Amino acid sequence: GAVVSQHPSWVICKSGTSVKIECRSLDFQATTMFWYRQFPKQSLMLMATSNEGSKATYEQGVEKDKFLINHASLTLSTLTVTSAHPEDSSFYICSARKLAGADTQYFGPGTRLTVL
Amino acid sequence: AQKVTQAQTEISVVEKEDVTLDCVYETRDTTYYLFWYKQPPSGELVFLIRRNSFDEQNEISGRYSWNFQKSTSSFNFTITASQVVDSAVYFCALSALTDSWGKLQFGAGTQVVVTP
Question: Average pLDDT for residues B36-55, to the nearest whole number?
């Protein structure tokens, strides 16, 4: 199988604080990891593509200084929401892919972020 | 640019009925991949199937079947004899080979509600 975990599964924080979300591929090495954001009853919106050892590629409209991505190893990528505000409240989902190109992405269980 | 259209927002069926989810895609690439994912209320996306553009054979996996027709740019998904556990949002997605990152373009999703 291909298992991806995320931690934490949910987090509540005060406005102005930073929150770090971890994404791990548990039984495979992931060449690429992706970070998505999903609003209620909507589809997934790709935020950024992360490759191990290099800078993340952000989608248009996504603030890279706001959403810091670090991909330190082939099994771990982190997303840090800096100086979070209520509008950052959302469901964040990561995915990991074994091989380059159009290989299957396996998704984590998601992290529910609520900013008060 | 890639585009995936899932015109059905929500489908409600009674248990044991069949349900077909439509997916229409647009791409200029000749090599691409199509996916279906299931998102139950827990939030995690579950991979169901991956199909490349050169393989038009229909596929059956248990109660699930898929009908890929390049002539109509469609990749429809049928659940036979639906069960309450099939209640979820189902996403169709497309990835083009020319996109080296293999980004997934998701449709809007179709909510399936199966009642006993």
Answer: 93
